[in-house]
Amino acid sequence: MAVGIGLAIKPANYSWAQLGGAGALAGIGFTMPLFIAGQALPGAAEFDAAKLAIFAASIASAVLGTTLLWRVHSPDP
Q1: Residue 47 domain-assigned?
Q2: C-alpha neighbours within 13 Å on the C-beta side of residue 18
Q3: Which of 25, 36, 53, 59 is the most core-located residue (most Cβ within 10 A)?
Q4: Do 74 and 30 meet the contact criterion of CB atoms below 8 Å apart?
Q5: Residue 54: inside a domain, yes or no?
Q6: Residue 7 placed within a domain
Q7: Burial (CB count within 10 angstroms: exposed 0-12, middle 13-18, buried 19+), residue 21
Q8: Under 8 Å CB-to-CB from 10, ≥6 apart: which residues?
Q9: Do 69 and 24 touch, CB atoms closer than 8 A?
Q10: In a 3-state reduction of DSSP, which class is residue 67?
Q11: Which tens digit of pLDDT belongs to each residue from 40-73?
């Protein structure tokens, strides 16, 4: 969005797919979501469900980011 409205410039060395893959990999995380869920959810059952959802989302982020980057990877000559 920032590139589209002129607030940022996309580096020419990187494709949109590479930037998307790196962005997807940035979704891997446990610490803050677990802390927030622990503060927000009073019951053990709700917290267990949140832990499962956080783990699933991190796995999905890792798979998506790795897949995107693997597809655009070009070996050096």
Answers
A1: yes
A2: 9
A3: 25
A4: no
A5: yes
A6: no
A7: buried
A8: 3, 16, 19
A9: no
A10: helix
A11: 998 999 999 999 999 999 999 999 999 999 988 7
Q: Count of domains in the chain?
A: 1
Quote the CA–CA distance of 5 and 16 in Å, as a whole number: 16
Residues 6+ apart with CB under 8 A from 36: none
* Nearest of 31, 24, 36 to residue 71 by alpha carbon: 24
- Residue written as token pair 């693997």: 70
**Per-residue pLDDT reduced to its tens digit, 3-46:** 999 999 988 888 888 888 988 998 888 889 899 999 999 899 99
Question: Hey, what are 67's tokens?
Answer: 């897949």
Indicate the length of the chain as a whole number: 77
Q: Phi first, then psi: what are they for 22, rounded to 5°? A: -65, -40
Q: Is 32 inside a domain boundary? A: yes
The DSSP call for residue 14 is S
Query: In this structure, what token pair is assigned to residue 14?
Result: 């990187």
